[in-house]
Each structure stands twice: as C-alpha cells, then as structure tokens.
Specification:
The structure is a single chain. The protein contains 8 helices and 8 strands, in the order αβββββαβαααααββα. By secondary structure, it is α+β, with helices and mostly antiparallel strands. It has a single domain, classed as Glutaredoxin (3-Layer(aba) Sandwich). α3 packs antiparallel against α6 and α5 packs antiparallel against α6. The longest helix has 19 residues. The termini are far apart. About 45% of the residues are buried.
C-alpha cells in the first residue's frame, strides 16, 4: 500500500427537499439527507434527483481542497437546499504515508457521518470544518476533535459517538484506490485534487474559473 500511495502522490505532482403546507411547496430548511453512492465509496449530499449532479474528489490534507470549500462551500449548501444540486464527495488518502494516517481517519469519519439521519446541510458544514482546520503533513485532528466538529456541525449523535470511538465505516484503502481509479479516468494527465466532475455532462469542470459553480448551475 505504501507503493500505491507513492504512485498516487507522483501522479498528483504531474499534474431540496420540499414539504407541502396548505398546498404550498416550501423548501425544507434542513435540506435532504445524505446517502452513499451505489458503489459505496461516495457520499451524496443533496437530492439524488437534482438536475445538476457533480462529484468532488478531495484529499483531507490538500490545501487547494480547503480553498475550494472556503470559496464555494456556502453556495454548495444553498443549491443543495434548493433541490438544484447533488454533490457526491469521493475522498482520497494519497497524502498519508501509511494506512491509518490523518487522511484515512478523516475519510472514515466522513462515511460514519453519512446516512439518513444526517442532513446534507450538516454534512456540508462538517466538510467545511474539516478542511478549514487542516494540519497538512501533521498528525491531524484526533478522533475526539473530529467528533466535536461533527457535533458542532449538526451530525447525528449516533454518528458522532461512532467517530469518537474510531469505528471503521468501511475499508478506507479500498475506497481510496477505487476513487483514484475514477479520478484517473477523468484526467490521466493532471490527476489531482480538488477535481470537480459534472456527472450529467460527463466533463471535468474548470474550478479555477471563479464563476464555475454559477455557470454549471445555469447550464
């Protein structure tokens, strides 16, 4: 697995729900719940039937991924709650030096947080908090610290407790390997994070265009 991590790091361098009240539809302020993608290695935040659907490939220690969340996180939340956007988060862990490291633990916590009891708004807030409190190259947050972020973001109590205990949500190495294969298929030349992919239009989005999100939402 160490060889696999080195390989991925080398490649990187190359490169709403509504409810009816008296007959009037209103946006649910909680937003839709989260769920796993069909392969089990992505986390869908937003209405799975939303007209715009994107994937975000992200690494917990990637500073550019932190910039993406800082700059566009609030807009992502707004579009999710309006029922216009579904975001599938696909974590990667290639910046870990060994299994069980910083990125591994954060990715595992993301999957523990996802589920029918966790609203997309809360999950998106959790992601923004995790990437907004990075320690690239360091030990990263402890399970207690990650759990506290989850609780403050509004994640379900059961999930918070599971995060605090360090429970395994899935085989993180298998998840990371599969997600990297998807990422490589999207762009085998500039393979890195963050990458945002438009699922319906089958294209990689230019996230270095400051208006990329408003453009895809109006397309």
């Amino acid at each position: 697995m160490r060889y696999f991590s080195v390989l991925m790091a080398t490649l990187l361098l190359l490169t709403g729900c509504s409810k009816a009240i008296a007959g009037v539809a209103q946006v649910d302020p909680r937003g839709p719940a989260t769920e796993l993608s069909g392969d089990g290695f992505g986390i869908i935040a937003g209405d799975p039937e939303a007209p715009i659907q994107i994937e975000i490939y992200t690494e917990p220690q990637c500073t550019h991924c932190a910039d993406l969340q800082k700059d566009f996180g609030p807009q992502l939340t707004r579009y999710m709650n309006l029922g216009q956007l579904a975001v599938t988060y696909r974590p990667l862990t290639f910046l870990d030096e060994m299994p069980g490291g910083y990125s591994d633990r954060v990715a595992n916590a993301m999957f523990l947080a996802a589920g029918p009891k966790t609203q997309s708004t809360a999950f998106q807030a959790f992601v923004e908090d995790l990437w907004g409190n990075q320690d690239p190259g360091g030990k990263g947050p402890s399970n207690d610290e990650i759990a506290n972020m989850a609780r403050e973001s509004g994640i379900d109590t059961g999930a918070v407790d599971a995060i605090r205990s360090g429970k395994n949500a899935l085989d993180v190495q298998d998840m990371a390997a599969t997600n990297f294969e998807y990422l490589y298929e999207i762009d085998p030349i500039n393979t890195g994070t963050p990458t945002v992919y438009d699922l319906k239009r089958d294209k990689k989005l230019d996230i270095y265009d400051d208006n990329w999100l408003s453009k895809v939402m109006s397309s």
